[in-house]
Each structure stands twice: as C-alpha cells, then as structure tokens.
Write a structure and sequence with these properties.
Length: 217
Amino acid sequence: MSTTVGPTLIFQAVDLAGVLANGVLGGLLARRLGFDPVGFVVLALISGLGGGVLRDLLLLVPPVALHNPAYLGVALAGAAIAFLVDLRGTLTHRGLVVADALALGAWAATGATKALAQDLPLLSAILLGLVTAVGGGMIRDLVVREVPKVFSGTLYASVALVAAVAAALLALAGHPEMGMGSAILLAGVLAVAARRFGWVLPAATDLRPRIPHRRRG
C-alpha cells in the first residue's frame, strides 16, 4: 500500500522546522548572554512558540503549542542543541537562516488564514499573520532588554508582511493551500536574499531644522 505526503504534512513539517530553528536561535542568544539552562529553555520557548501562542490568544482559541506536544518537544530540543553543541560553523548558520526564512512564511500564512477562518477582515488577518511571524522574536528580545531586531537590520518584518498578504489574498480566493505554499516560497527567497545582499529599509532622517552656525569675527 503506497502512502502520499499531503500538503498539510509538508506545511506542518516546515512549521516544526521553524520552531526548532527559532528554538536554537533563542538558545544561541542565551549562550551569548551567559544564561544557565533555564535561560536557554525560556528563550527557546519564547522564540519558537511565542508568535503562535500570541496569535491564538488574540483569536481566543487554545494555543496549538499547548495541546500538540510536538511543538513543545521541538522547541525544547532547540534549547538542548544550542546548549550542548557548538554551532558556530558557516553551514550551520546558513541552515538556520534558511529554516527561519521558510518558517517566517509558514507562520505569516498560518496567522492570516486562521484569522480569516474566524471571519476577521482582511487587514486584521494580515496583521495577525505579521504578529505570528515576528511576535516570538520581538518578545524574546524585549525579555533580555534588547531592541527587537525586526526594527532594524535586513528585511524581516517586511518579508513577513508580503507573505501574509499573499496568503490572505489567495485564501480569500479559495486557494488556502496555494496561499501557504506561496507565502513559504516568497518568504524563503526574499529573506535569504535580504541576508545575502544586505537589503534594508531606509532609516528615518532627522527632520529637525538645522540652525546654521554663525561665524565669529
């Protein structure tokens, strides 16, 4: 008897890979800050699961991470990997970047489509997709009293926004699975390219009027 892997299983695999990657990233931050194992676990859980938990709480539904043990287990595995293994290699870093980029699209799409399923309007669905994608990283950075990385550096939140818009529009058109796949592909390509080429949004300029210095004499 042959078995086929459907889109749902593929999307869940990408979702869990993103939880693992972000759990490891949270653990690496804990290592940089010299935290003990409890700190590794806390930052891994926040980084890997925070956005999804925040999304589900806003939707007033039980968080997926709490009733599906795979999510907690994978996030804890990320903490353990970061604590026990030296991950300073180039290939490891690139693998984490790619997994994080693909998860960014999956999370943005999941947040947007779940919001639409709750009959929320389009803009609210896009916002919830964005929150799902970047919420965990923002909470993690705030916990350690750092400026959230989504506010500066290479494109990240902008990529999540593009992915959420694509997923929401295709879901409204009756193609939610196509929306999920498109969001993952878009986020994967754009986020990796942004890292590779250093794409950033323009920073705000100082708009205060400049008073010319008077020359003495």
